[in-house]
Design a protein that fits this description.
Order of helices and strands: EEHEEEEEEHH
Structural class: alpha+beta
Number of strands: 8
Strand order of the largest sheet: 2-3-4-5-7-6
């Protein structure tokens, strides 16, 4: 059985309302999506409420993920604890409308794997950097060298701004 099948919820089942679905996201989960998250260990609980044509899903993920630091590119660990609500409706074809998802009524299932990944990715800070002093020292030395070279270049450009045109 494919591990990703654990994320498919059959909303047409009579016992789905009030049920919790538990998943564990590990490195193979994040490798499947090939995104910014390189590794991780998360536990997710998806609670389903609703009947008929509309379902409310509460998705809670907790654990850690590994991402590259935006400053030094070294691996860093981020703590994740996110809760998201999603409304799922039956319709004629699949549509992701942001606040809700429409799934084909004849299928009656929703694949939560990409949604779990998206909720985790969106819970991370926009700027992901190590705590002060924790960046890779070798990379920081190279970065500081380039920043110093750039500031010298800007100083040189400032000197040319004050030149006077001899034709005046």
């Amino acid at each position: 059985m494919n591990k990703m099948n654990a994320y498919i919820i059959d909303l047409k089942r009579s016992d789905v309302t009030g049920k919790d679905f538990h998943t564990h996201e590990d490195n193979s989960f994040f490798e499947y999506f090939k995104g910014d998250i390189e590794q991780g260990e998360l536990d997710t609980t998806i609670h389903v409420e609703g009947t008929g044509r509309v379902f409310n899903l509460n998705i809670h993920s907790e654990g850690t993920v590994h991402v590259p630091c935006d400053r030094c590119l070294a691996d860093m660990v981020l703590r994740i604890d996110t809760t998201n609500d999603l409304v799922v409706k039956f319709g004629t074809e699949y549509m992701d409308e942001g606040d809700y998802v429409i799934v084909p009524e004849d299928e009656g299932t929703i694949d939560m794997a990409p949604l779990v990944y998206e909720f985790v990715a969106l819970s991370m800070p926009i700027k992901r950097v190590h705590e002060p002093g924790m960046c890779d020292p070798a990379m920081m030395e190279i970065l500081n060298q380039h920043l110093a070279d750039r500031s010298n270049l800007e100083d040189d450009l400032d000197d040319t701004d004050t030149m006077v045109d001899d034709d005046e």
